[in-house]
Structures are given as structure tokens and as C-alpha cells.
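ingest -> fold -> write
write: protein_1
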Amino acid sequence: MKQRNAVLDPSALSKAMPLYEAVKQHLEEQIRRGVLGPNDRVPSENEIVAELGVSRMTANRALRELAASGRIVRVHGVGSFVAEPKPSSTLLEVRNIADEIAERGHVHTVRVDLLEECQATSSLQEWFGWSGSGALFHSTMVHYEDGIPIQIEDRFVNPDVGPDYLSQDFSQQTANAYLATVAPITRADVSIEAVLPSQSEALSLQIQPGAPCLKLKRRTWDRDRVVTVVFALHPGSRFELTNSSGPQPA
């Protein structure tokens, strides 16, 4: 791919903010306008210093903050490059993660870590609206996009709704796709919070233990019965969750 070059214009730097912030915003504007596209090389510290007349410390901080915000990727000894847009998923619409990945032109794979029957804890009984003890089907799996882990899915399923859940081959279809065939979603509730992963979660997602993550909690119904409760953990640096409106899928 032919690399495009940023237009570094000293007159574009705002005098009303710190220089590093002005440099950062100048480069962000180049990305927003499409002057620099995904995977294009970003000017180096030396180029920023020479063309904008700022200090090396200023150039370094601007690039560091762009990298921290996910706008660029810095490769040691090679340079800085515009990051590809983060994969995203909607909050209101319950979609199949494999379909979302395919729509981005990428390849979905999954690693199934656990398929079991378990007893519902008191908190899960509350989630499912049960007053007494009962068994649930439980699965944990890691979803990959082009070989990069983007989600840990921890799912509990009502056995009355999906009696064959534990016998499914989830390398061929996702849990979402299977459940959609046996119990079409009539409503869902969703919550999301920022969390830090456990050591095992960080290892599965190939991130540092202190890296922030987004944890989505979703409960779906088929008419008056809860079908499934899902806890999905996403690396914050690789994923974003968006809001949308419109009819729910069958």
C-alpha cells in the first residue's frame, strides 16, 4: 500500500493550549480528514521537531498520548502508524460475534475452554428469576479476530430452553447462533463497566494484567423466561461498544 504523508503546518498549531496537545490535535486532524489512513506512517519525532519547530520532548509526548488513546501504534525501531479502527459491537442489538467479524472482512475463530453443567449460585438464581436451586449449562470460550483475542465469553444457559447446548460444536457455530434457533430473543437487558482483568483473563486476552477492560453483562429472554446470562470481557484497547436503535433480530 502506498504510504500517504501528513501535512505538518506550524501555523495550524493552536496558541491556546500546551504545545504537545496542539501537535497531538494537529495529527488527529490529519487522521480524521483521511490525509493519513489506517496503517499509514505517522511523522517521526525528528520530523515533527524539524517541521513544526517544537522540542523533542513535546513531539514525544504528543506521540505517546496518541498511542495511549489508540489512534496510532508505535513499533520500536520501525516507527509509528495509524491504528486500524477498533472492532465494535452494539449494546442494544444482540448480534452474533462471528457475523460482526465477517462483516469487517476478518476471520472468526474460537477456543472453547469449558462446557459443563453447574448448580446456580444465589446471584445466578436472581439473574434467572428462580426462587429455588437449579442446574444451569455453563460455557467459557475465547473469541478471536484474525488470531487476536477480543472477547472472553462466560455464559450460563437455561437447560429448559437449550437442552442440547452441551452437545453443540461451537467451533462451527457460536452459542449465540445456536440459541437464536431454539429461543428467539424477545428482549434483553445490558450493563457495562470498566474492570481490570484477572491474571488468567489477561493471559487469555494476551494483555497486561493492569490493562483496562470492558465487561458487558447481558440477559436475554424468550417471552417470559430467561434464556441466557452472558458476561463478556473485552480488552479496552482493542474494542469499543456502541449504541444503536432499531428492531431486534429474531
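write: protein_2
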Amino acid sequence: MTGIDVVYACAGLGALCAAVLPTALAKRPVSLPMVFLAAGFLVFLLPLDVLPELDPVRHRGVVEHLTEACVVVALMGAGLAINRPPGLRAWSTTWRLLGLAMPLTILLTAAAAGWLLGWPPAVALLVAAALAPTDPVLAAEVRVGEPTDEKDDEDEVRFALTSEAGLNDGLAFPFVLAAIALTASSATGWSTEGLWHWAWSDVLVRSTVGLLVGVVVGRLLGWMFFQASWKALRLSEHREGFVALAATFTAYGLTELLHGYGFLAVFVAACTIRGAERDHGYHRVMHAFTDQIERLLTAVVLFLVGGFIADGGLAALTWRGALLGLLLFLVIRPAVGWAVQARGAATGRERAAIAVFGIRGIGSFFYLAYALGEADFAAPARELWAVVTFTVLLSVLLHGVAATPVTARLDDAEGSGGDPAPGRAG
């Protein structure tokens, strides 16, 4: 038996499970990420000498690009699935979560990291920024479903968490870059050097580039898919799902070449393509394809995360690092998420669910891997990986168990009339 034989066997079984389990687990308090995480953990506990060593410190580049691909595919799927047209009022919950909840979560998590673990400001900011975004990959149980012809058929919880996950992966990047800049200027303390450059370049310019490229690419592809006079270009008539990957990588690659935020561009491009011909069935074809690719990539990543944990990946975790993850999930995100929705569009039940389900996942691994490749931080890399991995593990378990019963109760409440949502956009 060789290592490649194990890879083939695991790949085949994993692909079969990725196809079967979503339906099999649909009404059970067990999520697909939980299954693949457990599978990786159990396989890497077996006494097999052919299993590879899983070390994100030594293989940082592999982790960065694998998680990067997983996130960008998920962002395209999320954007194509959203039925509600963008707008200040219609997306009011999203704007509150992005403009208020995410910065406050980063600030409070960084403060907690500095207090509990004694980390320098740059390290605390990095971990807080990496853990801040709601993950579009692991939030499948609380995301909107496939595209439909109805513009307003999404409940506020699924819509808010999907749109938040779609946008905040890109908008967390400035805070990661701030941590990189801070450790370069003062590894163990505070420094305002480069503050204006960060605000102008990393926040304003790069976000604007991501937004503009996403809109331009989305409009061009939307025109090509649905309106081009040349039939060969009017791809909606060919019903090829893999075109969604072409849109994903075109938007992401062009934006990164122009030094913008590719994550932001992919989600904006997806929403723009959806808006080009909102009721067309081709959106379902593209969404279904991205969903399949996303499930396969998620299976690979979480299987490896489970193996990393089995190999001792949490050995560097201290009780203080574990407490940081618990504080984020049990105190910081719920409290901030609840507070920023005051007098908003969600009902009381929806407001609580949105506040609690700030799922952390694959994007956190990407941001940490990216930052550790760009600068040296004044903390052991293995400790940082342990804290982030534990927090993602916590999210997979807690949110995975809670997602199905919570969303079922929300659906039951909505079906029975429920409480009217103040200010709910129609």
C-alpha cells in the first residue's frame, strides 16, 4: 500500500459522501463539515505510515491556495443564490453587520487576545481579523438556497448571513493588512506609521477596485450570457454550469492583478450577473455547479483539518487560547450582533439567530496563512494555528448541531405567522 492509494480511496469515498450526505443529513442536527472533520480525525489516528504529515507552518502556501479556491467558489455560489435585489433598505441588516458588527468584533476580539494571551497588538489584531468574517463555506445550513423567481422569498436570517458572508470576507482584508503593516513597523507595540497609507490604499482604493471590477465583470458577463446577439456567446442557452467557474476566476484574477480585493469582486460579480436577468433558469445551473465544487473542496479541507487535529495540531493550544475562542462565540459575536440590529428589519427570533450564527471557517485559515507568509509576527506560528483551528472546530461543532433545529423553528414560526418584522423590506 502506498500513499497515493490512500489518496485515491479517500478521494473516492469523500466524493460519494459529498453527494449523499447533504440529503441524508438534511433534517438532522449533524452537518456535512462535522462528518468530514470527524472522518479526517479518525483516518489519521490509524497506524498507517503512508499518511502524509499535515503541517500548516511548513506547507503554508498549500494551505493558502487551497482555502483561497474554496472561498472564492463559495462566494460565487452565495451571490448567485441571493434573490433580493441590492438596496440600502432591503439590505439594511447586512450593512449593520458589515459596518458595525465586524469592526466591533475585531476590536473586542483583539482586546481579549491581548488581555488573555499577552500577545502584541499586531498579533492580536491578526487573529481577530482572521476570525471576524462569517464564513460562506461552512454556513451552508443557514444560507439561502438555490436561486428562485421570487425576489423576496428569503427569510431575514438566511439572507442576512449569506450576504454578510459574501461581503465581509473581502472587507476583513484591510484589517489583516493592518496587522501586517503594524508588525512591520513595531512588532511588539503600537505604531501610527503608515496609518494614512493604510486608510487610503488598503481600505479605500483596494475596496473600490474590488467593487468596480466586480460590477464591470458582472455586467459584461451578464450581457454575454443573456443578451449577446451572437449565439455562441449567449451561454445561457448552452446550459453549461462550469461557466460559473470562469466568472469566478475571471473576476478574482483580474481584481488581484489590479491590487484590489478579489473576494469582494467575486461576490459583487455574482450579484451583478444575477441582476442581469434575475428570473432566468441559468442561474440555477451555475449555482448547482458551484455548489458541487464547493462541497468537494470543503470535504478536502475539513478532512485535512481533522487529520491535523489528530496529528497534534492543538498541542500548542493553551486554556487561554481556548477561552478566547469561547469568548468570541458565546459573548462577543452574539452581543455585538444583537446590539447592531436594534430597531432593524429582523424580528426578535431572527435577530438572535443572526447574532449567534457568525460561523467561522475556511476563510480564517486563508487569512492566517496569507499573513504568516507576508510578515514575521511576534508569536509562535503553531500557537496561532492552534487558536484559529480550535475556534473553527468550535464553530463546526456548535453551529453544526444548532443550525438544523434553529432554522426549523424559525421556519415553523414564519409559517404560523410569527412576529411582524419592523421595517422589513417588501
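write: annotation protein_2
DSSP finds 15 helices and no strands in the chain.
The chain has one domain: 3-415.
pipeline exit 0
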